[in-house]
Amino acid sequence: MTETFVSSGPLSLWTERTGDPGHPAVLLIAGAAAQGIAFPDTMVNRLVARGRQVIRFDHRDTGRSSTVDFDRHPYAIGDLAGDCRAVLDAYGLAAAQLAGASMGGVIAQWLAVHEPARVRSLTLLGTTPMGRHPDLPGPSQRFLDHLSEQSGMTPGPEADIALFRAMNGDVLPFDEPAARAMLELAWSRAADPAAAANHHRAGRIFAPDCLVPLSTITAPTTVVHGDEDPLFPLAHGEALAAAIPGARLEVVPGMGHVYFSPGLPERLADLIAG
Hints:
Blueprint: E1 2-8, E2 11-18, E3 25-29, H1 41-49, E4 53-57, H2 77-90, E5 96-101, H3 103-114, E6 119-125, H4 141-150, H5 157-168, H6 176-189, H7 198-203, E7 221-226, H8 234-243, E8 248-252, H9 264-273
């Protein structure tokens, strides 16, 4: 495993590569406000065992990567996709398998639409179709109630653990010790924890480049979605798979919007590698 800081324009991005550099590359793209370490080590190790080199990285405004004055320098999904391209360039990778979770899945779609030569395959985890889709259902009422109740909590690992428990749902067991270890590490390594909220602002920026039809995607695509996802109900995964030619939908029974259930990271790694 090697850690490297790479440049994306004026920004510095923390990256980590695990596995044999000669093996096919998987770029893991985390969700909004999430650091690269949100992908569990067990998932990374399983991918390496399946013959992949795995690259995790911290988005701008998260972890050890540069933070941005969003008011002076706002950015959108296409800019975050540009950071992914910079990571691939820094590792000398003409193309890679992309596995994107939540907002990371939207970023992966953007790259598959606008930079198809860089994308060997797509695995889209718990995400939604790029663009505007007001017909798709919103988060569950129970999840919205949790956000309302949590609004008074002090930001920190305890608040995030409560959020992860809510996103996990009640069907699959929640591996709280693993989630706690990751979240405590994430808070300890964040240059500015509050900056991660800029991702939600970026997601609200109207960008015409996100309206290109997903039917133009040519990369082999697997859509992986939990039927207990409280943030993006299953209809989002179904719509996404229907929009991309030849896409395969894998519904994971009981899975919510996070991957901290015993055995789940390995199962997802097998779907990515497969």
